């Protein structure tokens, strides 16, 4: 890996007083525009093409050349220079492509030129019609014959020549999209990555479904839910923490390869890798197991990297190159912990022994269990040293109540977590389909909940009823879409979510 960094000072934010003064000036221009008989926000305009299409058609127009082609385009004014008889503006389309508009006295006349100078501001959307030419400086331009305001901006744009503050980027993503190519690229990358995921599932015969976001019983993960109330049913409801229990119902019903991409909600902390609202992918395959789901997950992510970024080797925002290619390592949680620590921890190691070991390295766990301590110790010793994408296999049973017991390792379950870039990106299981054992696991979770564990699962009788009709042996996996984009781009979760929840 190679790494380069660049430091940019954030733009100084205008004061409320400055904004108010500029807004009043722009509102006055809006009023003058309407008084003149024109429209400040016309419902439609006779646009014939787009700025990107014009640039694609004339990529290398010679300096001071003409084309004889008249076009009608619209875009946002992001640069404006008004001189005597000739005015210049850079118009930007939604994808960031720009073209120069040249408004001259000779082409539009004095009244139209004066109107341009008086009424058009940075940030306005304008419509221009005229011949495509190249300026004396070789810039692709429209020599304007006619112009109209398409949408009058009554607030000024931020300084487009300086970097926006992180606070502005997150809270006012629309400004980020206007100002920064990186923000626009994130939207495109995310769209391509999600389309790639769907294409991979389609190739393997999966069916996409939608399951309830409002649930009478939260489950499918260990997390604290958001609670709401239905007036129509006069009952407590929960925003879902996972779609798992409904997707498994679909498998019971015969939809043997099923997936969903949608929103989950968890009433927990927010940091660089966690958001209370996030996009989640879950998939289940009848007659599969956790090994097959690991194969599928590697294929999906490699396809997404290639389709979104053009290569299995991606370049993160800080210049680091990260390779998703090749076969990914699969390591045992217990074996890798023992190799890194020099201990001999097994599924039979007692809670007291684990507490003593954890104390020696200052690892603390609230409401400790065998599984929670093993996972925390693994994160302490092993997680920081994972470089390449790595499947961590075979977890303690008490932290995975929806997972099948390991076929050859007593006390463990057939579960993996995929780690990329130092965080958990995806998880996969050989699913627990025995309704008797599943009930026992739920009872154990209920005991934890009674002891004060707010993330413990509830006993879900409706789900158990479905299992009792027979669910085939199955493999399942889940992956955060926002985290996938973090892995592909090297950015934090608030950058990969278009409109993140902020306080």
Automatic annotation (TrEMBL):
One of its GO terms (cellular component) is cytosol. Transmembrane segments: none annotated. It is found in: Cytoplasm. Its cofactor is Mg(2+). It catalyses: tRNA(Lys) + L-lysine + ATP = L-lysyl-tRNA(Lys) + AMP + diphosphate. Keywords: Aminoacyl-tRNA synthetase, ATP-binding, Cytoplasm, Ligase, Magnesium, Metal-binding, Nucleotide-binding, Protein biosynthesis. Belongs to the class-II aminoacyl-tRNA synthetase family. GO terms for biological process: lysyl-tRNA aminoacylation. The gene is lysS. Binds 3 Mg(2+) ions per subunit. Mg(2+) 2 binds at residue 424. This is Lysine--tRNA ligase. Coiled coil: none annotated. Mg(2+) 1 binds at residues 417, 424. Residues 190-500 form the Aminoacyl-transfer RNA synthetases class-II family profile domain.
